[in-house]
Amino acid sequence: MNATGFGTREILASLALLVLFLAAWEWGPALIGIPTFIVPPASMVWEEALFMLSAEGLVYHSVITAVTVLIGFVLGSLLGMLIGYLLGVSPTAEVVLSPYVLALQIAPKVAFAPLFVLWFGYTIYPKVLVAVLIVFFPVMVNVLTAVRTVDPDLVNLARSFSAKRWHIFTKIEFRAAMPPLFSGLRIGATLAVIGVVVGELVGGNTGLGFLLALGEGSGNTAMVFVTIIMLTVIGILAYVSVILLERRVLHYLHVDRG
Amino acid sequence: MAEHAARIDYRAVTKRFTRKGRRQRGAAEEIVAVTDVNFAVGNGEVVALIGPSGCGKSTLLNMGSGLYQPSAGEVYVDGERVDSPNSHVAFMLQKDLLLPWRSIRANVEFGLEIRGWPRKDRRDRALDLLDKCHLSHFAEHYPHQLSGGMRQRAALARTLAVDPSVLLMDEPFSALDAQTKMILQQDLAETVSGQGKTAVLITHDLIESIALSDRILVMSQRPGRIIREIPVDLPDRENPMARRQHRRVGEYVAELMALLDVGGHVADEVI
Ligand SMILES: Nc1ncnc2c1ncn2[C@@H]1O[C@H](COP(=O)(O)OP(=O)(O)OP(=O)(O)O)[C@@H](O)[C@H]1O
Ligand SMILES: [Mg+2]
User: Fold this and answer.
1) CATH number at residue B230
2) DSSP secondary-structure letter at B40?
3) What is the ipTM of this complex?
4) Which residues from A are below 8 Å from B when comparing CB atoms?
5) Does B7 fall in a domain?
6) What are residue A108's phi and psi, to 5 degrees?
7) Over the stretch B147-173, which tens digit does the pLDDT of each residue have?
């Protein structure tokens, strides 16, 4: 896909940059007089991470968050696809529903988190729901637009072979919407993490969001740093999984330049 | 098929489109795309349709394939009135319309698949056609891996796969470079002659119309009518490369140019 190959030089440059960054993090703040409770040096964060692994159940909370992200992401994507395709093939439904969809899209989804906690208590449901809601929109909008913009000549080609409406959907519209669907899923994968963390911050005693709140409450900056890093790792995993799946499904778009 | 029976027959066909008027509600603007078009194409005949841009050539083709209904008049294919897409006709456009997610073979199978052919049969037929179109090495390639000419050839294979009695072609080669175009014209002419196919070919390329057809129908500007029918009285219809070089081609070109001028002031655009 991209022309920027990873040669040895590029890898070395990247590694050098990492070392530079870690060094700046370790000694930089002290040099300009920033206290460690504002920016704890890298070594302190590392020690905190080891401590959290043994005493605070870092793995346990990370797994909880990761699984919730996965559930929220899958459900949100499926719902987004379902509604996106439905609205895509039914212009009437789209006209009727679009004002409400737009309103929901503009509403800040994370603001629903307290509401869901009120409704469902300190369970997994509020955070899954926030993630579902937040993932739903980019997926739905991308699928809807893609179905709408399918080349009418392609549809006519199928019709000229006496295709039924169902054929046009399964053989053309469904497949044609795949590339935009995956752009939506990429966005959704990162948003899902946000949704879950907000859900956990608002209420609950499990997950990385809970550790964030705990770190904040006890003034443990290093703990907050560790949690942010873990959340980033989960986000990256989610994103990379989508990319890998995309490579398989959209293999026909990848031009092999030999 | 009786000798005189037409494969495709346009009888007093008129097509009007209503475009919703801008701003003023209810004030729909009516466009007459073609009016009172009569022509028939006999078995194994190739007819070229030329005329200024917007004169309704594509509209005629769409009525032949059953995608549009005439506002007045009828189109018959193999003696049956066309009121919806049917298995007698297949069309091919300037765009190859290959589905990017399907291999070339699966693309050629597309029409057969919709028509419910069993997997094995359609596969055999697709491979057979790809072989005839010199594409067998590319059966499992994807469209993006092929050149424009090869893609258009695959589109031709897909059109032929459903074994239509009439091929409707709307500027099929106009997006190709000059050499590729000649090669594909040659392939098409050989295939059409070899299989005795009937075809209607829309083109803006006057030489192409002369090189490939038995008859040229010239249309006026919108509302499109057929203003002249020119039989191409040249040998080698199955060999356009040879026909192109015939000394009388120039006469036909001159005649067409004159006619298109009469049809409007668009000869420059058309040529
Ligand atoms: N679906 C449609 N709705 C409204 N108007 C249409 C429609 N299809 C065609 N027209 C109009 O009918 C006229 C004839 O169009 P058509 O595409 O048949 O012309 P054409 O001869 O194929 O032109 P070109 O040589 O540029 O391809 C044009 O004015 C066009 O705007
Ligand atoms: Mg046209």
Assistant:
1) 3.40.50.300
2) E
3) 0.87
4) 151, 153-154, 156-163, 167, 171-172, 175, 178, 250, 252-253, 255
5) yes
6) -70, 110
7) 999 999 999 999 999 999 899 999 999
